[in-house]
């Protein structure tokens, strides 16, 4: 196996001209460790079953050629908000210069720092606004080490050719396990008994306390979390029904029902796992609660807007609901502290006074395993984007991927051309690449922005600068990157 070829002669000059594109290596590095496209979490998890383990390599990856975007030591990565160690380690092992800070930064300090970096990793507190992104001249990619991406101006990022990645499903298992715990805690009124004993009251009761075996769980939204929950609940002896807007194959013996009303009428426990959309706003209100069985339980770990809380308070007071667990709220504090009061949500005092109500501060996905899985997934996506240009999983760019180059392909160049989505671009790009064999090419668009990736062979090193500059001069150009292998 030969190491990647470096581009010799006059390269520093060339590299300076294309530094904004992070394109070319300024020095050979035998340690260069670009992961092939197969470097990603395998469907079955990691080799020893632990989220922090090294991903398993496949035969294909051994044959895949390592592309070389630049001297990896030149890549500056800024990680804010205490990004998980597993993620940090993946980036450091690439040879990138990684600076990791425990907190977010005030906007002015962020602007100072972001001018210099190529990759930024954030969690939910750092706001990458239009103003901040306009200063981020070298930035090529943002990793949100969390579920949401509301903290990033996604459109501005795309228009500047900056891809954004997140990790939407790494914590599904954590949420599903929490729901199982809540079902048992509600059925046995555990939180009330515990609170009573904390206050010195011995209250041994069995009335209104139940086993969960043989009870029916109704899952609303049978996606990543709902389907995990389905398997766990069945293994504990529950019968599972589910309602989803899509027709889906049930796992185990779980059965899909035709309507939400069907589910509400049959379930002893109703657990919500739908996204926040205009259709799911107050999906469960007075009318839906009335349909539920008397003495049933409601669990919401989805989004705060999905349940009409004043209606839930009424249903709990009337005895219609025997209990509820709520992890998400219409308004949630930005940080930890004494903020859960009527100023935050006008009904808080009424809610906290109810019996058999579990209230948790949006911790459904908050486990060490989920944080580690998020770190691995986002860092891996960042590395693949930086080293190979792959946008699979990006939230603001079209998803484009090409199979890896193989070791027997030499003098190859991968062109990444992020451009305005206007007519005629493909023709212009291909007329620039005309004198080379285009081995493979893919282009896709999302809104105003399009992403083109092409592998061309038999490229002499001396030709790269011209190709790069010709592409940069096109009026449609947002950003050009060139990877060489
Ligand atoms: N509490 C937490 O910490 C936490 C953590 C992770 C996710 N979540 C939330 O959990 C929810 C589910 O997450 P997921 O990863 O399973 O999502 P998902 O996208 O995998 O699944 C959602 C499912 O809901 C279905 N759906 C959409 N609209 C519906 C409707 N009106 N009625 C019935 N079904 C509908 C979809 O078809 C899909 O199957 C999301 O709201 C997410 O934000 C909360």
UniProtKB/TrEMBL annotation:
Residues 31-40 have a biased composition (Polar residues). One of its GO terms (biological process) is L-serine biosynthetic process. It catalyses: (R)-2-hydroxyglutarate + NAD(+) = 2-oxoglutarate + NADH + H(+); (2R)-3-phosphoglycerate + NAD(+) = 3-phosphooxypyruvate + NADH + H(+). Gene3D superfamilies: 3.30.70.260, NAD(P)-binding Rossmann-like Domain. GO terms for molecular function: 2-oxoglutarate reductase activity; NAD binding; phosphoglycerate dehydrogenase activity. InterPro entries: ACT-like_dom_sf, ACT_dom, D-2-hydroxyacid_DH, D-isomer_2_OHA_DH_cat_dom, D-isomer_DH_CS, D-isomer_DH_CS1, D-isomer_DH_NAD-bd, NAD(P)-bd_dom_sf. The keyword Cell cycle does not apply. Pathway: Amino-acid biosynthesis; L-serine biosynthesis; L-serine from 3-phospho-D-glycerate: step 1/3. Keywords: Amino-acid biosynthesis, NAD, Oxidoreductase, Phosphoprotein, Serine biosynthesis. Residues 25-57 are annotated as: Disordered. Its EC number is 1.1.1.399, 1.1.1.95. It holds the Pfam family 2-Hacid_dh_C. Belongs to the D-isomer specific 2-hydroxyacid dehydrogenase family. Catalyzes the reversible oxidation of 3-phospho-D-glycerate to 3-phosphonooxypyruvate, the first step of the phosphorylated L-serine biosynthesis pathway. Also catalyzes the reversible oxidation of 2-hydroxyglutarate to 2-oxoglutarate. This is 2-oxoglutarate reductase. It comes from Dothidotthia symphoricarpi CBS 119687.
């Amino acid at each position: 196996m030969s190491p990647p070829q470096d581009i010799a002669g006059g390269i520093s000059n060339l590299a300076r001209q294309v530094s904004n594109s992070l394109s070319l290596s300024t020095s050979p590095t035998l340690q260069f460790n670009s992961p092939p496209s197969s470097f990603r979490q395998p469907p079955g998890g990691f080799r020893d079953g632990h989220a922090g383990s090294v991903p398993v390599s496949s035969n294909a990856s051994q044959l895949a050629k390592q592309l070389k975007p630049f001297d990896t030591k030149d890549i500056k990565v800024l990680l804010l908000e205490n990004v998980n160690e597993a993620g940090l380690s993946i980036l450091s092992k690439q040879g990138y210069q990684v600076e990791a800070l425990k907190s977010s930064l005030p906007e002015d300090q962020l602007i100072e720092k972001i001018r210099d970096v190529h990759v930024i990793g954030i969690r939910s507190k750092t706001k990458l606004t239009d103003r901040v992104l306009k200063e981020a001249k070298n930035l090529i990619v943002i990793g949100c080490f969390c579920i949401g991406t509301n903290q990033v101006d996604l459109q501005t990022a795309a228009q500047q050719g900056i891809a954004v990645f997140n990790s939407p499903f790494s914590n599904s298992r954590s949420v599903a396990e929490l729901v199982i715990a809540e079902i048992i805690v509600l059925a046995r009124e555990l939180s009330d008994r515990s609170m009573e004993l904390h206050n010195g009251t011995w209250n041994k009761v069995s009335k209104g306390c139940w086993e969960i075996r043989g009870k029916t769980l109704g899952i609303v939204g049978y996606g990543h979390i709902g389907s995990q929950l389905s398997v766990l609940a069945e293994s504990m002896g529950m019968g599972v029904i589910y309602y989803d807007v899509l027709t889906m194959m049930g796992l185990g013996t779980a059965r899909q029902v035709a309507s939400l009303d069907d589910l509400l009428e049959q379930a002893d426990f109703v657990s919500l796992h739908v996204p926040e959309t205009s259709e799911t706003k107050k999906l469960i209100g007075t009318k839906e609660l009335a349909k539920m069985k008397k003495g049933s339980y409601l669990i919401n770990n989805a989004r705060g807007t999905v349940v009409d809380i004043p209606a839930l308070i009424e249903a709990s007071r009337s005895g219609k609901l025997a209990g509820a667990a709520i992890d998400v709220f219409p308004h949630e504090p930005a940080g930890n502290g004494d903020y859960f009061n009527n100023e935050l949500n006008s009904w808080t005092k009424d809610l906290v006074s109810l019996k058999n109500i579990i209230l948790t501060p949006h911790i459904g996905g908050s486990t060490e395993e989920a944080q580690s899985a998020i770190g691995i997934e986002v860092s891996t996506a960042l590395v693949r984007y930086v080293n190979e240009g792959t946008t699979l999983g990006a939230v603001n760019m079209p998803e484009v991927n090409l199979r890896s180059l193989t070791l027997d392909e030499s003098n190859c160049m991968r062109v990444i051309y992020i451009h305005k989505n206007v007519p005629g671009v493909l023709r212009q790009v291909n007329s620039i690449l005309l004198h080379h064999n285009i081995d493979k090419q893919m282009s896709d668009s999302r809104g105003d922005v399009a992403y083109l990736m092409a592998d061309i062979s038999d490229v002499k090193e001396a030709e790269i600068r011209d190709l790069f500059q010709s592409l940069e001069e096109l009026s449609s150009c947002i950003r050009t990157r060139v990877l060489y292998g």
